[in-house]
Write a structure and sequence with these properties.
The mean pLDDT is about 90. Helix 1 runs antiparallel to helix 2 and helix 4 crosses helix 6. The longest helix is centred in the N-terminal third of the chain and has 34 residues. With about 290 residues, this protein is α+β, with helices and mostly antiparallel strands. The strands form 3 sheets. The chain has a 5-stranded mixed sheet with strand order 3-2-1-5-8, with no helix packed on it. Bound molecules: dinuclear copper ion (CUA). Dinuclear copper ion binds next to loops.
Length: about 290
């Protein structure tokens, strides 16, 4: 188990056990007082003038308990902030509404693939709004914010498949902003990292960036479907005025870089302007032409 998981679970269990003990203790004392000091048995209450011994006890014991909680939390926090020098750095890019993972050799994927037994450092960024990278099995949760890089790390120890969620409400498809993490043997990771992608660049960009909102089967999603989009006649709204256009290269280019400019009739623009390399843009447009 990752040392971070252990330390977080330890502090959680400590707090839960203390809470159960306090709940049981306070409830029992309360019930006991209700019966023992009922009005029937004690007509005239006696005035008590304070007790130094009691005050010391109820100050010192809770202080010790919360200091232990503080120590456990602080230890976990420091452990999480200090990224090991030998960690493999993976860049995590959040955008509406998908996750992208970039590896040291430039490879990019929509599934986080990591080798077991190696420390993994995550550099988490967002291209639009605030998202949150959340991998509960690893007790990992870190906001992805535009304009800054948040860092965290973890140590995968078992091979398996784990869930990644977005834990910060980020709009229409927030709930669908999911990804998987595969933890694999180091040799398998090395082979995967070097493997040439089986799909073309345009298709890869489409899957990574567009597919959450634009379907290929003709069904409208958050955005218009891409099925048969090339040279289709489309009614769009530009600056509040409706007009008819034909989907050509210039139109696609504008719609990717400045999605708010021409909005397809019947849709609302929720798409952030896409920042991608010229090569990716070319490849994506070539791919869309064939759909
Ligand atoms: Cu991204 Cu919620």
């Amino acid at each position: 188990m990752s040392p971070i998981v252990q330390s977080i679970d330890q502090s959680l269990w400590f707090i839960i056990i203390v809470d159960i003990f306090l709940l049981a203790g306070i409830t029992a004392t309360m019930l006991c007082f209700v019966f023992r000091y009922s009005r029937k048995k004690n007509r005239k209450p006696e005035q008590i003038e304070g007790s130094l011994k009691l005050e010391i006890i109820w100050t010192v014991i809770p202080t010790i308990i919360v200091m232990i909680m503080f120590y456990l939390g602080y230890r976990g926090y420091i452990g999480r902030t200090k990224i090991p020098d030998d960690a493999i750095a993976v860049k995590v890019i959040a955008r509406k509404w998908s996750w992208e993972f970039q590896y040291p050799n430039g490879k990019s994927s929509d599934t986080l693939v990591v080798p077991v037994g190696k420390n993994i450092a995550l550099d988490i960024v967002s291209e639009d709004v605030v998202h949150s990278f959340y991998a509960p099995d690893f007790r990992l949760k870190m906001d992805a914010m535009p304009g800054r890089t948040n860092k965290t790390w973890f140590l995968p120890t078992y091979e398996g498949t784990y869930d990644i969620f977005c834990a910060e409400y980020c709009g229409t498809l927030h709930a669908g902003m999911l990804a998987k993490m595969l933890t694999v043997a180091p040799e398998k990771y090395a082979a995967w990292l070097e493997a040439v992608p089986t799909v073309g660049r345009g298709e890869a960009v489409f899957k990574q960036i567009c597919s959450a909102c634009h379907s290929l089967d003709g069904k409208p999603g958050v955005g218009p479907t891409f099925k048969g989009i090339w040279s289709r006649k489309e009614r769009v709204v530009t600056d509040g005025k409706e007009r008819e256009i034909i989907v050509d290269e210039a139109y696609l280019r504008t719609s990717i870089i400045e999605p708010a400019k021409d909005i397809t009739k019947g849709f609302q623009n929720v798409m952030p302007p896409q920042k991608m390399t010229d090569e990716d843009l070319e490849a994506l447009i070539e791919y869309i032409k064939e759909l």
